Amino acid sequence: MASSCRLAHSSFSFSVKTHQKPFQRQTPVVKLSPRNYPGTSFLKLGNLLHGRAQPCLSHKKRAQNIQAVSIPVPPSTMNDAEYRRKLSESYGFTQIGEPLTDDITLRDIIETFPKKVFEIDDVKAWKTILISITSYTLGIFMIAKSPWYLLPLAWAWTGTAVTGFFVIGHDCAHKSFSRNKLVEDIIGTLAFLPLIYPYEPWRFKHDRHHAKTNMLAEDTAWCPISKEKFDSAPAFRKAIVYGYGPFRTWMSIAHWLLWHFDLKKFRPNEVKRVQISLACVFAFVAIGWPLIIWKTGLVGWIKFWLMPWLGYHFWMSTFTMVHHTAPHIPFKSSDEWDAAQAQLNGTVHCNYPRWIEILCHDINVHIPHHISPRIPSYNLRAAHKSLQENWGKHLNEATWNWRLMKTIMTVCHVYSEEENYVSFDEVAPDESQPITFLKKVMPDFT
Question: Are 431 and 406 in contact, with CB atoms under 8 Å apart?
Answer without folding.
Answer: no
